[in-house]
Amino acid sequence: GTTPKLGIADRGGIRTAIPVTAELTVIKNKFRDVIAVPAAAATAVRVGVPLVDFTADYYGWVQTRGYCPVLVDANTLVVGNPAGETTTAGVAGGVGVVAGDGTDPVWGIVVVKSTNGQTDQPAIIDLTLE
Predict the structure, then answer these.
(1) What DSSP line would sit under 15-80, residue for residue?
(2) Are 36 and 60 spatial neighbours (Cβ–Cβ below 8 Å)?
(3) CB half-sphere exposure, 126, CA atoms < 13 A
(4) In the beta sheet, which residues pair with residue 128?
(5) From CA 78, how far away is CA 58, in angstroms rounded?
(6) Which residues contact 79 (CB under 8 A, 6 or more apart)?
(7) Residue 77 is part of which domain span?
(8) Distance CA 26, CA 21 (A)
(9) How many domains does the chain have?
């Protein structure tokens, strides 16, 4: 067999020797290969909200914390309540009231609500994705 090698780029060097029998787990950075508003149900963790559209194979910036404008589905948001991803995938305005049973991912807390009952209206939530 072959012996796997792992290079560690640390300017200060390794502070604690890793035993030869140790097992290491390598995890891909969650900000690599981000999918913006998937056409079907999301298959990965939510990493942020893009403030502008960007297409595949381009770099983009996504906001992960703090006050952030989002487009809301036809739900009626309440200031101070959690908001997040609803079951409507692949559409702008997919943010709304999260299920009370805890099955919908929470993105943050509503700071400024959208116009009640209208689709694709802006609201501001205090993002807590990271």
Answers:
(1) SSPPPTT--------TTSS--SS-SSS--S----EESS---TTS---EE-EEEEEEEE-S----TT
(2) yes
(3) 7
(4) 65
(5) 35
(6) 110, 111, 112, 113
(7) 1-130
(8) 16
(9) 1
49 phi/psi in degrees, rounded to 5: -115, 120
Residue type, 99: A
If we measure between CA atoms, which residue out of 110, 37, 115, 105 comes closest to residue 67?
110
- DSSP state, 86? -
Local confidence pLDDT in tens for the 130 residues of the chain: 577 777 777 777 667 777 888 887 878 888 877 776 655 566 667 788 888 877 777 788 889 999 999 888 777 788 998 888 765 554 555 677 777 666 778 889 999 887 766 667 788 999 998 7
Question: β-strand 106-112 against 95-97: which pairing, if any?
Answer: unpaired
In whole angstroms, give the CA distance from residue 21 to residue 92.
Answer: 49
Quick one: which of 105, 65, 67, 71 has its CA closest to 86? 105
Please name the residues in contact with 116: beta carbons below 8 A apart, sequence gap of 6 or more.
Answer: 76
The identity of residue 108, as a single letter, is G
